[in-house]
Structure formats: structure tokens, C-alpha cells
Write a structure and sequence with these properties.
Rossmann fold; alpha/beta
């Protein structure tokens, strides 16, 4: 891209309740593909998250300081409307396994219907993260298991504190 070309910007949306090493792997890949990446934490209490949107942002921020082109924020409402407001070119979604594909494929098609100019790009994390999900990490932590291999240290501490109550 030449200096006259606009900076390419993508949105990496998710609940991130909590963020995992798999999420961070997808983020690293996105930051190599785009000039700017916005990690967009969904503020949808309907999903019954363990951590508030503000807590999730606070858990993510220390883990993205090494990326000079990454910002973290919250959003609510339709993702495509947020992406248009942010002047994003694409949405990045991680695909861990075939089981993710049908849901993500349908979501991408709906987003394309709502905003045809916005692309969805699927990124596969490193295979060591293919079985890691926030839900499984929370379940292991709730039962007293060690989750440090799956999440950054600050997240492991926050999970232990949340389930110690």
C-alpha cells in the first residue's frame, strides 16, 4: 500500500469472558494482516457473563500492550453498525474447529446482508488452542482446576478470585 492508501482497519469482536491465549493468538494474526485492529468487547449482559464489560476490557488491555496497532473498547447493538462507525474494512473471527464453522458462516452471511462492503475473515489459531474456549476455561476454574496454560496470568488470577467467593 502506498502513502495515499487508507489504513486498513479490522474489528475483532467477542464476548471475551474471559480472553484466552487462543483469542490472543488470533489477535496477533490480525495485527499482522491489518494496520489497525480494534478488539471490540460485546457489552451484552443477556449472555450472563462472569465479568462485566469494563472488567473484560481491563483484563485484555495488559495483554495487548505489545501490539502498537491494537485498541480495546466495548460495543453494544449490531456489530456491523459499530464497524461502520469505526470505519472498519473487515471483521476478524477465529475458527477453532469445524463445530464453529456453521455458526460463524451464518453470522458472516447475515453481516454481509446488513453491510455488503464489510468483509468477514476467518483466522485459525495455532492448533494448541483449538480446544480452548472461554466457557471451558470458566468451568475448569469453577471446579478448582489450573487454567494458567489457557489464559494469561492476570486472567487466571481474576478467575480464581471470582470463584473463591
Amino acid at each position: 500500500m502506498g502513502p495515499e492508501d487508507p489504513m486498513r482497519h479490522c474489528i475483532y469482536p467477542g464476548t471475551f469472558d474471559p480472553i484466552t491465549r487462543g483469542h490472543l493468538d488470533v489477535l496477533a494474526r490480525a495485527s499482522n494482516l491489518f494496520d489497525r485492529v480494534t478488539v471490540a468487547v460485546a457489552d451484552n449482559a443477556g449472555k450472563g457473563p462472569l465479568f462485566s464489560a469494563e472488567q473484560r476490557v481491563a483484563l485484555i488491555r495488559p495483554n495487548v500492550t505489545g501490539f502498537t496497532n491494537v485498541a480495546v473498547t466495548t460495543f453494544d447493538g449490531l456489530l456491523v453498525e459499530f464497524a461502520v462507525r469505526e470505519k472498519a474494512h473487515a471483521i476478524i473471527r477465529g475458527l477453532r474447529a469445524l463445530s464453529d464453522f456453521e455458526f460463524e458462516f451464518n453470522m458472516a452471511l447475515m453481516n454481509r446482508h446488513l453491510e455488503p462492503q464489510l468483509e468477514t475473515i476467518f483466522v485459525m489459531p495455532n492448533e494448541q488452542f483449538s480446544y480452548t474456549s472461554s466457557s471451558l476455561v470458566k468451568q475448569v476454574a469453577r471446579l478448582g482446576g489450573q487454567v494458567g496454560h489457557f489464559v494469561p496470568p492476570n486472567v487466571a488470577e481474576a478467575l480464581q478470585a471470582a470463584f473463591r467467593k
